[in-house]
Write a structure and sequence with these properties.
mainly beta, Jelly Rolls, six-stranded antiparallel β-sheet, 1 helix, 8 strands, 3% helix, globular
Length: 158
């Protein structure tokens, strides 16, 4: 068998300039089940912040972005970080055209954080959603012991 190894073409970076991300503070409100006042949701929207958002209470948390006017979405980026504890997190991302629903699931994802290995998770989804009124993120921060606080380093939409 004759073989030739060829170089794989580089994968182009899909960086979105900061000006292309939606300024959520200007076009939406947020509904939360819990929020630590030292780590408010706004911290997950600001570039250059290290802390992001964190819940004040343990257990499952819901974050809803409620748009002032329905919007079309093409990209959703979620970033999570956990450097202190090993845990398995699950999140579910849903959207609705009407504030009351029904909600349509976009993705359900599990990730295991380990201080000695995987301390960060970044999910970048290309979507084609029209007329989104509500975007909901449900976080189950610890599927095994249930004693972790939910957190979100960044949330970006385009």
């Amino acid at each position: 068998m004759r073989k030739t190894l060829v170089a794989r073409p580089p994968i182009p970076a899909r960086a979105v300039p900061e000006r292309k991300w939606i300024d959520l503070e200007q076009v939406a409100s947020v509904e939360l089940t819990s929020e630590d006042p030292n780590f408010p949701f706004e911290y997950a929207l600001v570039s250059g912040r290290d802390s992001g958002w964190q819940a004040l209470t343990r257990g499952e948390q819901i974050i809803r972005i409620v748009f002032d006017q329905p919007r079309d979405l093409q990209r959703i980026r979620l970033e999570f970080s956990e450097t202190a504890h090993e845990r398995t997190q699950e999140f579910t991302l849903r959207w609705a055209a009407e504030r009351e629903g029904p909600f349509n699931e976009i993705v359900r994802q599990q990730w295991t954080f380990s201080p000695q290995g995987s301390t960060a998770e970044m999910e970048d989804y290309e979507v084609h959603l029209s007329g989104v009124s509500v975007l909901e993120l449900a976080l189950r921060p610890d599927l095994t012991q249930g004693n972790a606080l939910a957190s979100l380093a960044r949330w970006r939409l385009a």
